[in-house]
Design a protein that fits this description.
- This protein has about 220 residues and is of the alpha/beta class.
- Helices cover about 45% and strands about 20% of the residues.
- Helix 1 crosses helix 6 and helix 2 packs across helix 3.
């Protein structure tokens, strides 16, 4: 894993400081799926903070340079990965495109916006990986275009087993700036959560469905 311990700890600290990630074990959040979760993540908040925005950009650049070589294009996953991907492409001096979840139903019916060609090598930028489903839709769209996807870099991952399996099945290398375990470590140390909350929060990651069912019926 290329991500350094210091990078992961600092990234987790930033995400908690600006409430890009919120933790609430007693009054869990409701996701779009209807499931209950003790964590809510909106990494777009980080774009409003120049220091954090710069840290994310430079961390992505470091991870990319240390992991993959010969990149032709940077691709962002719509919508959270668009701004981050554009910043990274600018820093690397590379072309940028972004990938929609599906092709438009009007106009040119593009799924990939920007100039990209078969045979080009791509690194994909994402803000958040949950199950990996939406992230891998972007990868598949690029592959169908004839591009070679070297890998994906994301700000944060929950580290769910289903995501690990999905990325392995798709043969996509994933690198993240920080992760759920590091987040809990920082959250406990900085008193965002109580030590007594850690077990429940860890159990959510092991089985989100069972955790949700238990809290919906509570």
């Amino acid at each position: 894993m290329i991500t350094t311990d210091n990078m992961a700890l600092q990234m987790a600290t930033f995400l908690l400081q600006v409430k890009a990630i919120k933790l609430n074990n007693e009054n869990p959040f409701t996701w779009a799926s209807g499931r209950k979760s003790p964590i809510y993540c909106d990494n777009r908040v980080t774009l409003s903070y120049p220091e954090i925005r710069t840290f994310i950009r430079q961390s992505f650049v470091e991870v990319i340079n240390n992991t993959w070589s010969g990149i032709d294009v940077v691709a962002g996953v719509a919508t959270g990965g668009i701004a981050q991907g554009a910043l990274v492409a600018q820093e690397l001096g590379l072309p940028f495109v972004y990938v929609r979840s599906e092709a438009k139903s009007h106009g040119l019916t593009n799924q990939i916006e920007g100039e990209i060609h078969a045979g080009q090598t791509v690194v994909v930028i994402e803000d958040l990986v949950s199950t990996g489903k939406s992230s891998l839709i972007a990868v598949n769209a690029l592959r169908e275009k004839g591009c070679v996807v070297k890998g994906m870099a994301a700000i944060f991952t929950y580290g769910l087993d289903v995501a690990v399996k999905n990325f392995a099945d798709a043969d996509v290398e994933l690198r993240t700036l920080t992760n759920y375990d590091t987040l809990l470590e920082v959250a406990c140390k900085e008193d965002y959560i109580r030590p007594s909350d850690q077990e429940s929060l860890a159990n959510w990651r092991k089985n989100p469905e069972a955790w949700s069912d238990a809290h919906m019926n509570a």
